Amino acid sequence: MVTVTPMKKHLCSKRGQALVELTLITPLMLLLVFGVVEIGSLISTYLTLTHTTREGANLTSRGEDPNDAIDAIKAAASPTIRANNSPQWRIIYTRIVQDPNVECTTAPCNYIVDDQITEGDLDQDSVLGTSKGTIINEKIDGVDSVKPNQIFHSIEVYYDYGPNVISFVGKGFNTLLYDRTIFTNVSAI
Questions:
Q1: Distance, CA of 35 to CA of 40 (rounded, Å)
Q2: Sign of CA pseudo-dihedral 57, 58, 59, 64
């Protein structure tokens, strides 16, 4: 018969083991939960921007005033884009026209910036050009041939997600989100 001394019994005890394991694993589980929430929020924000650029370009291509389309974008993207966080975002409407002086049968074609409207205080410029008369030589996805003087409407949205980061997990990725949608003028087709 083996006798167990009180000291040996105390040293071999499993009491408290679960508490120690829980204490060690809790910070890791919290980090994982915050990371999932952070990535989910980032994806939701990006999908909001994608949806609003498409809707804005669709509205302007159907003849809606660009200022009204930008207002509709801001309303649809709320609370991501709102008046009190204008340093975090910029919406850029650009009307571009196929260069009438250069015939285009295959892409890339020459386009001219015909009009541009911006809102928001984020310091980002349009990828298409920043001033009226800028010539763009770029292939527009989905457009293989362009009619002379064909009009396109572009909505670009920049959003700085950085101030919304809720955990240090989010500090490791680029927080500047960008999306652009270009529609042709529906009435001209």
A1: 8
A2: positive
Strand partners, 98: 111
pLDDT at 186: 74
Burial of residue 126 (number of CB atoms within 10 Å: 0-12, 13-18, 19+): buried
In 3D space, the residue among 135, 117, 21, 20 whose CA is nearest the CA of residue 64 turns out to be: 117
Phi, psi angles (nearest 5°) of residue 113: -70, 120
Please give the structure tokens belonging to residue 5.
């001394």
Nearest residue to 152 (alpha-carbon basis) of 100, 101, 107, 188: 188
The model carries a pTM of 0.80
Is 106 inside a domain boundary?
yes
In the chain, the number of structural domains is 1
Which one has a higher pLDDT value, 27 or 132? 27
Q: Is residue 3 part of a domain?
A: no
113-163 confidence digits (pLDDT tens): 889 999 999 999 988 887 787 777 777 666 666 777 788 899 999 999 887
